[in-house]
Every structure is written in C-alpha cells, then in structure tokens.
Amino acid sequence: MTGKRETSTQGKRRPGRRHRKAYAAGPPVSLDPFQEQAIEALLEGYSVLVAAPTGTGKTLIAEKLLVNILSEGKGAVYTSPIKALSNQKFRDFGQLFGQEQVGLITGDLSINERAPLLVMTTEIFRNWCFANPEDLAHTSHVIFDEMHYLDDQERGTAWEESIIFAPPHMKILGLSATVPNVREIASWMADVRGEVVKVIEERCRAVPLEIAWIAPGGEVLDEEEAREEIAERQEVRRWRHRYWDGMLAGGREEANF
Fold this sequence. Notes:
This is DEAD/DEAH box helicase. The chain is of the alpha/beta class. It is built from seven helices and ten strands.
C-alpha cells in the first residue's frame, strides 16, 4: 500500500493544547523515550503507530492513554485479533481500571457492553463501524493490538476496513512488534483518513533475545549441546539404516537360494 500524504507535521496546524490532560494518579513508572514520544503525540491529538520489539512496553502506552481517556469521561475501544487475547485484556483491564469500566464483546460473549472501555475482536469493531457508528459517538480512540495483521492475506481486510470506516473523530493507536513497513502503512492511513499519523519506532530490545533448543526429553540445550545432540542422533540413524540395509540384503540373498 502506498499513500501520497506525508506523516510530517510541517505546514500543518498542530492540534490544540486543549488535548493535553494530566494522567490520573498511579504507581510511578519510568518511561522510555519512545513511550514518552508516543504518549506525547497521543495527548496532542494525533493518531499514532508504534513499532517496537516484544517486551519493550507497548501495552504501557495504551494503558496510559486509557487512563487519560477514562479520566475525561470518554470512551475507547481496544481490539485484538483473537478471542483468547480479548478475554485476557478484559481481565487485565478490569483489574487495572475496575470491572464496571470494562466490557467485552466477541462472537461468543457480550459483557457490560455499555462500559466506557470495550474490548473486542477487530472484526466486531469493523461491523460496528458499518452497522452502529452512532454507538461510537463518545468513543475517542480505537487501539489496534497486533497491527501487523493488516498484512494478513485472509483477515487483513478487517483491519483495512476498520481504519477506513472508523468515525472521523476517532484517533487510532496501532501497536505491533513485527510490522516491517510501518511508515508505508502510516502514509496510507494518513491518506484514507485525511490526518497526520505519527510513527514511533523502537529497535532496541529491553530483554535480550536468547535462542535455546528443547530436546525430545524436554531438556533445554544451548547451541553447543544442541549440535552434539543432533550429531549423536544423526549417527544413530545412519547406524540403523546400515543395519536394516544389511538385513534386507541378507534376506534377498537367502531368497535367491
């Protein structure tokens, strides 16, 4: 996907400072620069795409935004690609914000659907945009978890249509660890929605990535141990092949007599 609209703010009027609100009180959290940049852009009224490795704290950005939205008496939608993740977020947000503040809508369940914060699958949100846009009149933001599903061959249309048909007043926060073309997506979003879309990228891993192997018996092996294990198993296979080849050859010779 390509778009002509730039994501830069040059030559465009910045959203008013009235968008800035203090967060509700909570445990002190030290934010990384990319988190601060994303939250700053959201408070200024921009739609934002965040691309950062797993474990770096993308969810914290969403939580800070939701604290602000709920403290202002507004609503938000949090979408996820699968029901299991929706159920998990429903429980997590219920503990964080209070059960009365959070609802869940999937193909199987509908709980507290009048709550200001609604968790649902992306397909459900897309359907709301088509059939019940008036129900989103007081909803200021939609958060797309696992934004890289936009490129999914089978389900990507649900994300595309959700972005295109979300009411114009709603701002978007997209979160992904793996989206490779985040700036191209931001340009397309800016084009179809007629707004500036900020891109926040973080490339450093908060937790170093380690590779390990699990043997058939359940042992966790490092690279050297794994190579030794593989070599031993390959030698056993070769021995077995030689053994059975010999047995079969001997059987054929006996049959010839």
